[in-house]
Design brief:
The complex is a heterodimer of chains A (119) and B (108).
Chain A: E1 3-7, E2 11-12, E3 18-25, E4 36-41, E5 48-53, E6 59-61, E7 69-74, E8 79-84, E9 93-100, E10 106-109, E11 113-117
Parallel strand pairs in A: 2-11
Antiparallel strand pairs in A: 1-3, 3-8, 4-5, 4-9, 5-6, 7-8, 9-10, 9-11
Chain B: E1 4-7, E2 10-13, E3 19-25, E4 33-38, E5 45-49, E6 53-54, E7 62-67, E8 70-75, E9 84-93, E10 96-99, E11 103-107
Parallel strand pairs in B: 2-11
Antiparallel strand pairs in B: 1-3, 3-8, 4-5, 4-9, 5-6, 7-8, 9-10, 9-11
Classes of the chains: A mainly beta (119), B mainly beta (108).
Chain lengths: 119, 108
């Protein structure tokens, strides 16, 4: 059974870089026909798509975040990662990693991790 | 960018009622539209993909319809367990996906 687990600091200072990793178990990222994604949800608000990455390293980003976001994949560790630089309080959110259902929407999700931006 | 407008933002209905939630896209997304259910503190759960295909294990009281720019999620007979927030997601192109703002469904 596929499992995804987000990990990383729960507190980041303003202007610094938020870094999260999603570790995949029960399935391989390498050569898989799926896109792996990051989504966030500010407390009490809706979902925001951050971006997707393919095992080959091909990435797609939300245009509103594109200048600050990098998503990468490490197939040797079966992980993919999110970096968001120059963070502000508006980036405080629960961050989810997820896998799509192959040419489809996200089906499998991590449990989410709360990242707070505060000094 | 494709914008998704979801309505209503909240609704209150009784057990057994038929409930409909709508998502409108700012341009055609063909049938690349999904619906999710989210309960507090839990990751979203996929209910419907490709506008009308029910994900395995989802109760048959849920159904999706529509194409192009207008889509609906219908709960044919509302159950207490359906109290949640529902989101649509357009995934017409891998280069840009967009969620709707969400609809909170409350049981009277």
């Amino acid at each position: 059974q596929l499992q995804l687990q987000e990990s990383g600091p729960g507190l980041v200072k303003p202007s610094e870089t938020l870094s999260l990793t999603c570790t995949v178990s029960g399935g391989s990222i390498n050569n898989s026909p799926y896109y792996w994604g990051w989504i966030r949800q500010p407390p009490g608000k809706g979902l925001e798509w951050i971006g997707n990455v393919y095992y080959s390293g091909t990435t797609y980003y939300n245009p509103s975040l594109k200048s600050r976001v990098t998503i990468s994949v490490d197939t040797s560790k079966n992980q993919f990662s999110l970096k968001l630089n120059s963070v502000t309080a508006a980036d405080t959110a629960v961050y989810y990693c997820a896998r799509d259902r192959s040419s489809g929407p996200y089906r499998d999700w991590g449990q989410g991790t709360l990242v707070t931006v505060s000094s | 960018d494709i914008q998704m407008t979801q309505s209503p933002s909240t609704l209150s209905a009784s057990v057994g009622d038929r409930v409909t939630i709508t998502c409108r896209a700012s341009q055609s997304v063909n049938s690349w539209l999904a619906w999710y259910q989210q309960k507090p503190g839990i990751a979203p759960k996929l209910l419907v993909y490709k506008a009308s295909y029910l994900e395995i294990g989802v109760p048959s009281r849920f159904s999706g319809s529509g194409s192009g720019t207008e889509f609906t999620l219908t709960i044919s007979s509302l159950q207490p367990d359906d109290s949640a927030t529902y989101f649509c997601l357009q995934y017409n192109s891998y280069s840009s996906w967009t969620f709707g703002q969400g609809t909170k469904v409350e049981i009277k």
